[in-house]
Amino acid sequence: TLYETTSSLPETRFDYIIVGGGTAGCVLANRLSEDRRIKVLLLEAGGNYHGVEQLSIPFNSIRAAGPGSAYNWNTSTTDGGTYSRGYVLGGSSSINGMFYARGSQDDWNRYAAVTNDEGWRWENIQSYLRKNEQFVPPADGHNTTGQYNPDVHSTTGKVGVSLANYPQVTDQLFTEAVEEEPSKFPFQLDYNAGTPLGFGWVQSSIKGGERSSSAAAYLAPQYLNRPNLFVLLHAQASRVLSSTSVSTNIDTVEFSQGAIGDSTVVTLKASREIILSSGVVGTPHLLLNSGIGPASELSAASIPIVHENPSVGKNFSDHLNLLNAFALDVSEPFVPTESQTFERYTLDPAQMADVTNEWRTTKTGPLTSNGLSNQIGFSRIDTSDPAVQQQLAAFGDPTPGPHSAHYGFTPINGFAFGRAPTNNSYLSVVATVLQTKSRGSVSLNPSNPRGQPLIDTNLRSDPYDVWAMKIAFKDSFAFLATTPWVNYLADSQAALGLAPVIDSGFDDALIEQYINTHTSSGIHAVGTAAMTAANSRWGVVNADLKVKGVNGLRVADASVLPYVTSTNPMVAVYVVAERAADLIKSNYN
Ligand SMILES: Cc1cc2nc3c(=O)[nH]c(=O)nc-3n(C[C@H](O)[C@H](O)[C@H](O)COP(=O)(O)OP(=O)(O)OC[C@H]3O[C@@H](n4cnc5c(N)ncnc54)[C@H](O)[C@@H]3O)c2cc1C
């Protein structure tokens, strides 16, 4: 059942308390409450997801709750930017781009190697993928033959996954470009089979024309109604602690209703375990406030040390994004009219009203689209040039293996992030460096440790990341240089500072300058409570996700992944949560 206030909770003793009702937290709430004898409390700082139309319309995608939204934590970064994360049941799965991607087999085999636990290997996580995924037909009912490999998908899991729900003008251009240059841009039937390299169709967490967030899937009414599951909204935890004289025996969560700093501080106990699922920022913030972290940082904030661990909040590993936008000249007959790009809806309230009406009545139409892209490509750096090979070797190749991309790019039929800056139509190409070498951190604000933590994304601090982005950027232009795209882009004007780069004939120094001013976080960070082997000299949790140095506490969310995935990371978070539930249950059987 959902509760809005602590005083309305009918129980005060629970077997498990899960802190954070996000992507991972909703999975744990569902799985741990499958046994009706077990009482599970899920604490979520934000409000309800169910019934919020703006979040369930797929087209709103990353526009649903961008910076400034009430569903976004709106946390600033130390460089003056923001780091988005969901502040609502379902967490970031309720506000994200919905790209469904499992990483590469190498990603998982590296997690297994770092943790010394075969259970994280690609072949061994397949059962968790099956528990998570429910592959469904797209909202437009088109024939999906040849757009995916049915053999690698499950139809029995919880999160709905579908191929392109609404056609785009870019579908044909993408397909033709791949046919024209198969050696450079090979077709990939299904990037979710462990070997994502190549160019193919995007799969999205969309079901029946609606966003299939973790809250929609794992906390659907039939699960929420379980009498042994208690979900408390607007409950923001400040720390975990011990109710006994042994400070490392963690059994209590301290939280307040509304914002941290409220005078009404409540504590509740879990008889079995507390699971932190507050995400890549929230989890290290809670650990630090609980006295688990680097000694100097804790002393600076006057927090008594429960267990010293220098790794907490470190190793913030993210993707690096570059948005290239081209303003299309809609006066030319052979370029798309405005009606063919997303600006038709984002800039015209009347057309938006029409398609909203269609979505409300039949859950079909343009708003069932993920609002971003129907295709994506993943590539490795071409090392046929010995100079490139030497340079890559000098940096040290950060990819986990030959099946893993260095970078990816996706063409977007409209302006990618938010509203277009002018009244125009756009083509965007977002290029992403997938395995970056820069590492950021989440740390306490020493003068206000319970206030928002300091997020230092530290993007581009390692020169490899800029070098790899240069290659990704040039390759995305090589893609746009294929015949179908050349025709589409004729007479278009480069936007967002691209024109000088193109006019210079892609001068290296200008590209670098452009990268330094226009790249941003992929908002895909992981790693701030990394899982490593029990005898490792770094890391925050062991392979079974138990926090090193204390008892009664686990972490299950993006923060435990020691390296970011070579594709978008949401599915990896689902796998972590599904396996966490199994690991926890096996402790008590
Ligand atoms: C805008 C955006 C777009 C993205 N697009 C994609 C995509 O297309 N595909 C993809 O694979 N990945 C995408 N990602 C990344 C992906 O969504 C995240 O990696 C993943 O959802 C993280 O899951 P999590 O469980 O670790 O954290 P979250 O889902 O963020 O959950 C953490 C939860 O804990 C709550 N919380 C935090 N602190 C506290 C506290 N102190 N007390 C109580 N509750 C607390 C939060 O409110 C939140 O609900 C995107 C992310 C963002 C932000």
Write the layout of secondary structure elements.
Layout: E1 2-3, E2 13-19, H1 23-32, E3 40-43, H2 53-56, E4 75-76, E5 82-83, H3 105-115, H4 126-132, E6 133-135, E7 159-163, H5 170-180, E8 198-201, E9 203-204, E10 206-207, E11 210-211, H6 214-218, H7 221-224, E12 229-232, E13 235-241, E14 252-257, E15 265-276, H8 279-289, E16 292-293, H9 295-300, E17 307-308, E18 320-328, H10 343-346, H11 349-362, E19 375-379, H12 386-395, E20 407-412, E21 425-433, E22 441-443, E23 454-456, H13 463-480, H14 483-489, E24 493-494, H15 499-503, H16 508-518, E25 519-521, E26 553-555, H17 570-587
Parallel strand pairs: 1-12, 2-3, 2-15, 3-12, 6-7, 15-26, 16-17
Antiparallel strand pairs: 4-5, 7-9, 8-19, 10-11, 13-14, 14-15, 18-21, 18-24, 18-25, 19-20, 20-21, 22-23
Bound molecules: flavin-adenine dinucleotide.
